[in-house]
Amino acid sequence: MPTAAIQRSVEILLLIGSALVAAKLYRNGLWRRYRVFFAYFVFRVPNSIWPLLVTTGSPVYFWLWLITSPVCVVFYVLVVAELYRLILAKYHGLETLGRWAMYAATAGSVMISGLALLPHFTPAMPQLSRVLGYEYALERGIDFSLVVFILLLLGFLSRFPISLSRNVVAHAAIFSLYFLTATLGLLLHALWGKKLSAEVNLFLSGASLVCVAAWLWLLKPAGETIPARIPVFGSGDEQRILLQLDTVNAALLRASRKI
Predict the structure, then answer these.
(1) What is the tally of structural domains in the chain?
(2) What is the rounded CA–CA span in Å between residue 22 and residue 38?
């Protein structure tokens, strides 16, 4: 089967899977706990339909991509912020600090990416090329900062033995794989350009399909009450480490009240 036909089949499966995930979250009431994640999958449904109906390379396709791509990026930022809230629910001081640090780093990364493009813009450059340049700068900057914060979040989970539900652990692991794979795809596109674009797109779609299937299978109402035991590396005395975490969180809360 040609790569294009396989790609289209995977995209159709992704559309069906996205609709099923959104419907399952709503039916089970989990959307109240994962509001941003639920909204993202509601958005994914129409955002998965139009690429199947519009000819690739047409002006309509380009403008729809230009409009919807930043929306996806904003959802990525908000989903990562929601992950921080879910994982650090008992440590509001740490959660607030991490969330605002992520927002600040994301804004700074986007600004640096945009400024780095300025020397490449010339008066003779078409306006469309400028728009595309800023679009890629936006996505590159945000993706880079989110990768850093996702890795920090995973590092935190591997270091501190905090108690989390099975749903939160599964969601964090799946989204980390989902986003890191998408970021790897952007890197591969930048390195190889159009040479292997079809293969890279198929790889990305296949990875997304695996993640969607995992969300559909693993996120259940019962998973909110079942604790998950996360392997902690080099934890030593768990009570001592948790006490240190409580101390840092309390200090941050006191500092935030003084501001």
Answers:
(1) 1
(2) 6
